[in-house]
Amino acid sequence: MKAPSTRYLDHDGASIAWQVFGEGPAEILIVPGWVSNVDQFWIYPDPRAFLTELAGFARIALYDKPGTGASDPLEVAPTVEQRVEQLVAVMDAAEIERPTVIGVSEGGITACLAAAGRPDRVGQLVMLDASAGGFDPRGKGELSDAEFFAWRDFILSTADHWGEGRDGEIWLAGVDDHDEAWGRLQRACATPAVARRYIGALTEGLSAWDILEAIHQPTLVLQRRDDQVVRAELARAAAERIPNARYVELPGAEHLPWLGETDEMLAELREFVGAPPPTVRSERVLATVLFTDIVGSTESLTRLGDAAWRAKLERHGQIVEEGLKRFDGRLVKSTGDGVLATFAGPARGTEAARWILDALAADDLRSRAGVHVGEIEMQDDDIAGLAVHVAARVMDKAGDGEVLVSRTVRDLTAGSGLSFESRGAHPLKGVPEDWELYALL
Q1: Which domain holds residue 427?
Q2: How many structural domains comprise the chain?
């Protein structure tokens, strides 16, 4: 998805950076924490992919709170009233009347306050790895006093060392070079002074704990189980206090919602906002299906080492690409140490298999191939159906350097000049009856 335009609205003399994107049918307003920069979200692949998926079923409004990201700096942290007014101002600018409001991280407090105080403008509430109670010990849930205050001290320490990238393995769990990435993200989202002002509001008592029971909109609390920035115990306690809130705990330690595995999270959001399930383009066609596989890949990896094996796999990809190009094949996907491809005709698919295996052998890469013809189901960029399963099982029966085909392929290539030798009838795992297989000579 193309990055949306960043716009500005004026609120109490401060310019607030905001964006709107997506076509609906649902409407969503995202309230970020103070790790927010609406422009940076579109530079990096993880947040871009996450927001693009959301935009597939909703019209999204997103903003940077004053002092953060692309919005104006601030001298003091906004009051409770100002935070809610800023949220409503963004809704008005985006012409969104009563959306699902998603609070992320510290933005969960503002989202809860808006839901309780402006039910005329908040249709539903989602807490996404989000805090509701701030530093209020009444919201500690199952945490012991010592655990709760250790968690609070960790958050305070983050603000004290803002911009240095400390504890990147916690804030950006799973990200390579996490400390460097975390420091860069901190500096792009807020200055150390702003971080201290926002954290100061929490130490001075900013919390939504006392108003949680006044939230009557449908509420979904999505929380990563091992998130150490917003602990699951805190999220569970908030969910128990909000009337009829639904709590869903997801696997993972990632705090920022677009990091790690997001499929289940996005599916929960899609269902909650009432968007229809994603449509899968399905078209059934007759095709020749080719599977290839490197023989002894584990042993080769052990013998060659990581670097040399990566070079071999790169060369493997180049050879396969050339073979598919020569015979008008379409690469469906890589299977790690092999490929799945389709062809318009069985002769082309079989000839491509032989050319690829011979070229790989010349580069000391031993491979095998299986070819079958049948009806497949096109599913966006993937394929499915019994024919795909059969081709994979045919390949499993092939020997080193062998192109093995089903009888269907043998029969349909009659007159093509290709020669085959019978390998007899074989049971194929998961496929009814025995199948006659033939080796290309």
Answers
A1: 282-440
A2: 2
